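Figure S7 source data.
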Amino acid sequence: MSRVVTVAAAQLGPVGRDEPRSSVVARLLALLREAAAEGCELVVFPELALTTFFPRWHIEDPEELDAFFEAEMPGPSTRPLFDEARELGVGFSLGYAELTEDRHRYNTQLLVAPDGRFLAKYRKVHVPGHEEPEPWRPFQHLERRYFEPGPQGFGTWRAFGGVVGMMICNDRRWPETYRVMGLLGVELILCGYNTPLHYAPDPSQDVLQGFHSALVMQAGAYQNGTWVVASAKGGVEEGVDSLAQSCVIAPSGQIVAQAYTAGDELVVAHCDLDWCDRYKKTLFDFERYRMIEHYGPITAQRGATPPQ
Ligand code: CDV
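Tokens for the predicted 3-methyl-2-ureido-butyric acid complex:
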């Protein structure tokens, strides 16, 4: 039986600070319907897809901050997305800011089956940026103020005829993200991102944002023999330009489909999950070739310890 999954990275253009959920959900629905018409079984929406990327502001009023979070999923404004996806028979993955009943805050991504069943939830592990406002920056990146790291870590789930994992934005820069999922047999990694082109701590990286994003995901896909579907919220949002270039990457490390706009755009690819074994069972046959006796420092220490 063929294990080809037709997926779409459903890239979003900017979402304004005042744009209501209903308007964003209408945009998600338009992409979902287009994906269904193109025969997609799975649609991947970006990180924090329902709102503007609010960590760029220091928000002091707790009520104003709470308004960017979802205390319920689906809630009244997101239910139409769940209903329509089930009607169309399309699964989806959605990034949003999660506020739990006991008031923990996570940067979260959901996986929902084509029949509307809840399949999995992933909470971002690598939370970038800073905890305190840094007025010297042209805009803030206060993710570390607003989100806790996901306590459950990485996971994989049997879905869409294969083994699916999720990661969120900054996670994609860390090789451990892919390797942990690789060790859990991942064949299809779903990723949403918001990546400002300007990186204030080192602006020399600004022109390299597209290169670095592709570099890490292509390497992660190849070294673990997995597909990667990466969906951006791109374009100029509230004055901050962010990377678009949503893409689908094959286990060979090749980009097989890529967005050509910085707006709402569907990037479709037919992913043959059996192609993963060409890498998993040859060059990257983990059982045969990994040398775990030499990898101890990877989990034993955080920082580097150069020789004296
Ligand atoms: N949303 C993110 O995680 N963005 C980071 C920025 C801060 C560099 C990223 O890794 O793209």
